[in-house]
Structure formats: structure tokens, C-alpha cells
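Key result, reporting period 2: structure in, sequence out.
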């Protein structure tokens, strides 16, 4: 039997253990809108198992209506248990209803009525079995044409929907690479976030430009141990770091359970400390950054850390008592989703035409937001609904994933997500976010800020 976290760490300072345990519980809170990520993949051989339907209507499509399921995660329940601070994201069911009302008042989905269904998912019991059950409910009971996913991190989730020919509009900050988009084409899309490949290229390039590696021969990389991250590290990140003049000391972390998660981070901190490494970056998401920063302190390891949207910047700022002092000092990296990372006084809300449009859509149903962070769930929902509508606007005949996907590719960069800065769709591209900004922690305001303008993500 695997020893408990407390048994393995009996010699550590109790206050540090408490912080580490609290940080772990943050992951459930971070599942929606706070930037958590557990990359999934079908590279282990589980493909979609189906050929795209090129003719006829897709599931959930009638002559008059299109059924779309929006999945939500209960953030407030987790907050009440953990005491973590974050802006109230509002009522997602009402937000979905507002989108349905607006879409149907403005042409529907290719002339059909949008039938929007909201389903809450209990992320605290997330498992392959639970996500298979949800997939069955949505594809078999609801018979949905499309699903808007939030908080779905198991590797079987997206292939399950593709096998059922159900379109996935992924509103989760999950690391999905081009190979996975291609394998699940035309069923998997992101209306709000970038492809993981382009992100990694931009991330390493930015850190090099910002001097993060200056004077160092090695950099510590804390990486989630899963097929996508393995492939990305070996084929892309490590070669890019080598080109930047540093060797990568990789700490692979098994993120499938609490014990392995803590154990991997602890071992990584010890390895980095022994090697004299004092620069650390993360590839794999928020659970790694917040856990590692806490566990590293218990191992007497100090370093300067990089930061990205995937590392849940808002959590660091909103919950400083959970993170050891000094951890955020010098953090630099990239940001591509303002609602996840910067305060309204650092970037006015709303800031872009796309953001204003979504705010106005919700406003027509009487829904307002106290801050951009409070809209961190609503904005990706809005992106998904508007992309669904945009892809169907010129489809006069059958509505299925193949026809819709071909139309979406033609949108190119004209579709700009409210969640980000620029559009990036086009032939063979399934992730809509096309730009990022340099982001760093400002100790004067105790917040993350952007520096400079939009920078395009690299595309293959």
C-alpha cells in the first residue's frame, strides 16, 4: 500500500505540509477558469475509432434545432471547503441560457434553434470512469450535436466524444497538441485557447528573450508525465531549450493521484537542489506550479520560477498565504487569457471588441460581471457559442462535424476569442487563440502585468 502523504513527510515542518495539502485541493477549484491542466492524449493507441460523417445531419440535429450541452464545474462548493479566494464566477446555468436566448434571437445555428443544456460535473470525483459516464450521458441520453467541455482532464474524455461523432468545443485550459487535434479531427476544437505546440515554442522563446536562462547551463523543468507532455518535451521543448543554450533537467511527475503528485514534486526539488539549479519552469499546468513551489520550500530549495496561463497565475495572487514568501518574485513568462491572470486595473475590462461583444450578450439577459476574473467561465462559454454559430452560418444543408469544421477553417483569423487577443483558425488549425503577451509579476502591485503588445503564436 502506498504510504500516505503525512507518513512520507513526517519530518517536515507541519505548516509546510498544511500549505501543500491546501494547494492540492486548489486543483479542483482551478479546473474551470483558473487554469488547471492535466494534458490528455490518444497517443497510446486509442484513436477516434470512427470515420467522419460527410453527409446527413449529425447527432442532436433536427430540421429545426441543434442540441448543445455545456458542462460546468461546481467551484463554489470547493471554495467553501478549502477557503480559497477567487472572484465569484456567477451562475453558469443562467449564462448558458443567456447565450441560447441571444443566439436564437440572432439567426440560431444555421437557421436552426439552439437547444442549450447545462450539466454540472463533480470534479472532486474526476476519474476515467466518471468521464466515461458523463460522455455516455451527453452522447446517448442527450444525443447532443456538440459539447462545451470544462474541467475534463482524463485521457479518455475527448476520444469518447469523437467515437460518438459528437463535436467537442473545448473550454478547458488543457494542453492539447496538434497531433491530438489531427487524430480527433473534425470533432475536437478550442474556441478560446492556443495549440500546446505553439504555446511551448512561444514560452521557451520568451524566457530566452527575457534573460531567464542567462548565465545558466541547466534549467529545471517540472513536467507532467503523460503522452502529450512526453512527446512535447522530447520532440519540441528539450531541443528548443538546447538551442537557447541550456540543458533541461526534467522532473517527471505522475499526476494521476495525490501520492505520486507530491512524491514527484519532492524528488524534483531534491534533484534540482543537488544539481545547483536555480531556474525552474513548468510544462503541464497549475497543479505542478503551486504544488512544487510549496514542496520545494519544505526541501530548502529556492529558485526563480517562470509563469504562464497554464500555471494558474490568479491562484498565486488571490491566495498568497498558501504560497511560501518570495516564490512570485521575478516570475516571468507568457499570458494568453487575461481573465486568468491580470487585474482590471492592469488591463481595462472589457478591452477588446470580442470581449465587449460577449459582455453585451450577457448584459441583454441582465447578467453583469464585477471583474474580468468573474467572467472567466462565461467568456469561454461565449466563445464556444459564437464559434458554433459562425461555423454554421453559411451551411444551408446538412449540419454535421465535417461540414461545420470545413466552414470554421475558412474563418481564419477573423474569429477572435473574447478570452484572448487574436484569432488563429485556418486550414488544419483547430485552436482559436492566436497571440500572447509577455507577463511578469510586479512586486509593487503584488500582481501580474503584461509588457508589450500582442505576439503571434508560432504555427506549423
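The corresponding designed sequence is given below.
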Amino acid at each position: 500500500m502506498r504510504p500516505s502523504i503525512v507518513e512520507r513527510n513526517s519530518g517536515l515542518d507541519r505548516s509546510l505540509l498544511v500549505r501543500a495539502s491546501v494547494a492540492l485541493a486548489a486543483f479542483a477549484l482551478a479546473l474551470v477558469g483558473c487554469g488547471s491542466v492535466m494534458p490528455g492524449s490518444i497517443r497510446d493507441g486509442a484513436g477516434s475509432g470512427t470515420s467522419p460523417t460527410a453527409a446527413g445531419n449529425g447527432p442532436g440535429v433536427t430540421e429545426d434545432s441543434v442540441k448543445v450541452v455545456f458542462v460546468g464545474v461546481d467551484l463554489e462548493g470547493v471554495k467553501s471547503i478549502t477557503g480559497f479566494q477567487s472572484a465569484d464566477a456567477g451562475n453558469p446555468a443562467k449564462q448558458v441560457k443567456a447565450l441560447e436566448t441571444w443566439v436564437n434571437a440572432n439567426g440560431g445555428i444555421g437557421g436552426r434553434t439552439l437547444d442549450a443544456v447545462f450539466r454540472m460535473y463533480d470534479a472532486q470525483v474526476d476519474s476515467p470512469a466518471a468521464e466515461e459516464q458523463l460522455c455516455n450521458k451527453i452522447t446517448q441520453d442527450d444525443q447532443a450535436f456538440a459539447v462545451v467541455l470544462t474541467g475534463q482532464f482524463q485521457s479518455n474524455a475527448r476520444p469518447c466524444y469523437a467515437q460518438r461523432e459528437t463535436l467537442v468545443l473545448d473550454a478547458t485550459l488543457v494542453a492539447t497538441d496538434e497531433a491530438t487535434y489531427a487524430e480527433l479531427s473534425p470533432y475536437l476544437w478550442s474556441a478560446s485557447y492556443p495549440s500546446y505546440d505553439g504555446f511551448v515554442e512561444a514560452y521557451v522563446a520568451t524566457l530566452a528573450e527575457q534573460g531567464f536562462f542567462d548565465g545558466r547551463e541547466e534549467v529545471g523543468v517540472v513536467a507532467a508525465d503523460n503522452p502529450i507532455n512526453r512527446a512535447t518535451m522530447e520532440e519540441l521543448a528539450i531541443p528548443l531549450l538546447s538551442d537557447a543554450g541550456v540543458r533541461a533537467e526534467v522532473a517527471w511527475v505522475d499526476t494521476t493521484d495525490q501520492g505520486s503528485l507530491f512524491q514527484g514534486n519532492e524528488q524534483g526539488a531534491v534533484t534540482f537542489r543537488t544539481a545547483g539549479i536555480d531556474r525552474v519552469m513548468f510544462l503541464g499546468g497549475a497543479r505542478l506550479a503551486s504544488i512544487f513551489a510549496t514542496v520545494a520550500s519544505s526541501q530548502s530549495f529556492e529558485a526563480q520560477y517562470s509563469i504562464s496561463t497554464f500555471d494558474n497565475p490568479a491562484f498565486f495572487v488571490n491566495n498568497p498565504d498558501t504560497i511560501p514568501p518570495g516564490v512570485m518574485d521575478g516570475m516571468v513568462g507568457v499570458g494568453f487569457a487575461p481573465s486568468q491572470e491580470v487585474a482590471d486595473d492592469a488591463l481595462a475590462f472589457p478591452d477588446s471588441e470580442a470581449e465587449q461583444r460577449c459582455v453585451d450578450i450577457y448584459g441583454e439577459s441582465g447578467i453583469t460581471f464585477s471583474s474580468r476574473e468573474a467572467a472567466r467561465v462565461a467568456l469561454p462559454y461565449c466563445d464556444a457559442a459564437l464559434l458554433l454559430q459562425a461555423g454554421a452560418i453559411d451551411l444551408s444543408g446538412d449540419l454535421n462535424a465535417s461540414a461545420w469544421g470545413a466552414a470554421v477553417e475558412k474563418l481564419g483569423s477573423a474569429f477572435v476569442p473574447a478570452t484572448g487577443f487574436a484569432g488563429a483558425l485556418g486550414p488544419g488549425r483547430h485552436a482559436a487563440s492566436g497571440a500572447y503577451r509577455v507577463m511578469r509579476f510586479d512586486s509593487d502591485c503584488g500582481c501580474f502585468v503584461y509588457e508589450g503588445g500582442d505576439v503571434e503564436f508560432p504555427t506549423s
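Residues 1-42, 44-49 have pLDDT under 50 and may be disordered. Residues 258-275 form the longest helix (18 residues). This case is discussed further under Risks and Mitigation.
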